[in-house]
User: What shape does this take?
Amino acid sequence: MPARSTKPSVSFALDRLTTPIGIALLVTDADGALRALDWEDYEHRMRELLRLHYGAVDLSNQTAPTEMRTALSRYFEGDLGQLASVAWRIAGTPFQQKVWTALAKIPAGTTMSYGAMAAGIDMPKAIRAVGHANGSNPISVVLPCHRLIGADGSLVKYGGGLERKRWLLRHEGVEV
Assistant: This one.
């Protein structure tokens, strides 16, 4: 019988941060880079995204870097520019990474349609694919998937729930 190759599990740290819209789960790597940010009530979804991107993942309770916790807390207190200081690293397909990197460039207080995002990454017909990549974004808030909206201005979906999306956009000064 041939030997089965087993991929070793990846180890990440898991921390929790209280925010005005719930408990945020922060997953960081050994270098202190953010690998996932999701909401405690969506922990199962976060773990599934981690599994899809990394295979077997071992999460141990450990405090995220102080600079990251401070930056995220300050963002939720109104200092919107703090998100840019959070170090992050992602795994995904080249297309997903292209979308997620583009998300990071949408300024706070602005929104963009899925179609405009597709055009912005030079793939104007990939609107649905942009939507799917956006839905698989492992780093909510920092990679601001909440800033993507429907062509008609509707909020569409948000992995953390539409109420959180509405709160985040209002927090950033967007009329919704």
In short: The helical segments are 43-54, 66-77, 94-103, 114-120, 127-135, 162-171.
